Amino acid sequence: MDYISLVNKLHPLERKVLPTLTTHTELSQIIKTSGLQEIEVMRALQWLENKKILYIHTEKQQQISLEKNGKLYKQHGLPEKAFLNALTDSFQPLSKISKSASLSTEETTACIGLLRRKTAIEMRKDKELEIKLTPLGKTLQKSQFPEETFLTHTFPLPITQLTTEDTIILEDLKRRKEFIKIEEVKTITITLTPEGKELLSKHKSDIQKEVINRLTKEMLKTGSWKSQDFRSYDVEINVPKIHPGRKHFDNEALEYIKRIWLDLGFREMSGNYVQSAFWDLDALFVPQDHPAREMQDTFYLEGKAKLPSHLLPQIKAVHEHGANTGSSGWQYTFSKEESEKILLRTHTTVLSAQTLSTLKKEDLPAKFFAVGKVFRNEALDWKHLFEFYQVEGIVVDPNANLTHLKGYLREFYKKMGYDKIRMRPAHFPYTEPSLEIDIFHPVKKQWVELGGAGIFRPEVVIPLLGFNCPVLAWGQGMGRIITEYWNIADIRDLYKNDLQQLREIKTWIK
Predict the structure, then answer these.
(1) d(Cα 371, Cα 393) in Å, to the nearest integer?
(2) What is the CATH number of domain 251-271+348-504?
(3) Which pLDDT score is estimated for 296?
(4) Nearest CA to 250 among 486, 3, 77, 5?
(5) Is the pLDDT of residue 443 over 70?
């Protein structure tokens, strides 16, 4: 290695950091000794690692720190010990004990629970609660609690240093309010390579020599540059990777999906997130006592919606007795108040209903799609979100049938990278026949439902369109469709906003 050439290329930050490595290996020590900021030290260390002068070792470990109450009790003693020391072998009123021990009401309550579990106290109820020591309590007065022993540690305390007994005590202390916290810390240590050691042993004085890193206009004006030593420009050094701006990968997939339907001749539908129960549920022949309307499934908002007066009588009649649809309806009294409720749309099928209400016979055949957010009051897990995109579509065509519906779906999923899918019979209030589409998840080893599809029932079509006509319809969860492309096993990872993930995840290209 040409050490002289290497020394001439060293940046001023590297020149300040390198000499400290003869005596220090931990980042915190290097920062303190060099007098530089942490970001400056890390930058210099990374440059030196690129030059093969040193190795940077990063170790993550959990450590225990004391919070407000933990620090207080470490200094002044545990409240339960103070409570115990205020007791005698005769019953005393709780108020007297609490005052003697100088404890708050919250601390007193906690102490009673802790000491009862240790069978250190006995209680009785007279005019007020009275407490006395048990024989075991007398013994405990003279001994040190395990929790007191735990607090003698020096904090922060690496979790790897805990004994088996410490681990048991830690589980109890974690339940106490503002007592301890466990956090992951990163420890960075530096090791010199053989080349680095040789460089420092032979050229330490040259390294510490001051050099000029940048030529300024003042130097040119005064001519002072002639007497200065300049750092050599290193054209081979690794430069930081630049991450240009890009769309969120979820939006890339969204645009790709829209392009699929546009290329198939569909027109895009759009609408508001906030809808009435009339459009979201009633217009789709969902009964007003259906479980999906409950608060655990739907986000309801305050206020009342204004209903379309030209459609309300037909929808009401269909629900109550089927009207001219060939069915008997749901056989109940339709509630206008229920229909006026405002909610966050639970599916983009609401857009299909609204689109149908605007069509005339001369507009047919017609095809529409939407890719939009919907909202469900669901518990989060690896395959469920409470806010997600749904891929919606309808085909309004007198000649359409179930075979066409399956064809559209297979073509869509083929373009999304799924050659094998499963379609199985299902039930939805607004389609008949109905089916669900599944894919087999290769990591979770189970079938994952992607969404429903079917042909709208006459009870949906006739009131909205004014006449009966086959309407193919589907609503698919976009998140579950696209995660496989990025090998994302947990759907929540789509929106975790991890900067490294956003920078490094592959672009959506099909």
Answers:
(1) 9
(2) 3.30.930.10
(3) 61
(4) 486
(5) no
User: By three-state DSSP, how is residue 30 classified?
Assistant: helix
What pLDDT score was predicted for residue 406?
A: 93
CA dihedral 157, 163, 165, 171 (to 10 degrees): 40
Task: Write out the two tokens for 224.
Answer: 């002072």
Start and end residues for every CATH 3.30.930.10 domain found in the chain: 251-271+348-504
CA–CA dist 437, 107 (Å, integer): 57
The CA distance from 354 to 357, in Å, is 5
Provide the token pair at 149: 């022993």
422 dihedral zone (left: phi>0; alpha: psi -120 to 50; beta): beta
pLDDT digits (tens, 9 = 90+) for 473-485: 999 888 878 887 8
**Assigned token pair, 477:** 């969860």
The span from the CA of 86 to the CA of 98, in Å, is 8
Where in the sequence of the chain do the CATH 1.10.10.10 domains occur? Answer: 66-179
For residue 469, name the pLDDT band (cuts at 50, 70, 90): very high
Q: What is the pLDDT of residue 216?
A: 87
Per-residue confidence (pLDDT) for residue 189, from 0 to 100: 92
SS3 382: coil
pLDDT digits over 80-110, tens only? 999 999 998 899 999 898 999 898 888 999 9
Name the band, by pLDDT with cuts 50, 70 and 90, for residue 213. confident
- The CA–CA distances, whole Å, from 335 to 278, 341, 385 equal 10, 11, 31
Sign, CA torsion 241/243/249/252: negative
Tokens of 266: 């569909």
Q: How far apart are CA 237 and CA 157, in angstroms?
A: 40
Q: Let me know if domain 66-179 sits in CATH 3.30.450.90.
A: no
- SS3 of 182-234: EEEEEEEEEEECHHHHHHHHHHHHHHHCCCECCCCHHHHHHCHHHHCCECCCC
